Amino acid sequence: MTTPALTLYHNPKSRSAGTRVLLEALGVDYAIKTIDFTAGETRTPEFLALNPLGKLPTLVHGDAVVTEQVAITIYLADRFPEAGLAPAFDHPQRGPYLRWLAYYAACFEPAVVDHAFKREPIEPSTSPYRDYDTVIQTLADQLARADYLLGDTLTAADLHWGTALKWTTNFGIVPKLPVFMAYIDRVCAHPACVRASELDEKLAATLPGPAQA
After folding, report:
1. Who's near 196: CB < 8 A, 6+ residues apart?
2. Its pTM surpasses 0.85
3. What's the topology of domain 6-84?
4. Which CATH number fits domain 94-192: 1.10.443.10, 1.20.1050.10, 1.10.260.40, 3.40.50.170?
5. Tens-place pLDDT, residues 173-184
């Protein structure tokens, strides 16, 4: 049997859960390389050669190594355009699509981490994301406009955001606003989310340890 060209280094109790959702939505053949945090498998020389930060998700596609959630999302959705999960390069929604993916990495993640660790906010004029409340409200305002980030059509950005909001609201570091919970329900009802969740529940039952980044 031919080994799939795509390999996801994965632990279901980590951010790589969102990448598995996208892989399922794309309908592509992929392999899972399970990472056991308690065994220190993100700190081995072999793994650090792929991702020096020792973080998940890490994706290997042939000879290419792709790290960082947003980079992986953009890469996969563009690499497999037949799934229709990313606006084409010349589509009017391409810019907004990239905006909301970048907003996740540049604004949402650092704001949420600072908030979770109760770090004092810095002067908004020098903060890369202004402040936590503004980040959350900006996202809530966007999601109140339509079913999905770009309107009525679900994209890879929604699969990413829906998974992230499910985690962060469950952890209590993002408020369970009605607009967020309704969005999570819509995105997580997607067949790919359901399949990935079922697969990851089975995998998680075989792994010790708490959730990690």
Report:
1. 17, 20, 21, 23, 24
2. yes
3. Glutaredoxin (3.40.30)
4. 1.20.1050.10
5. 999 999 999 999
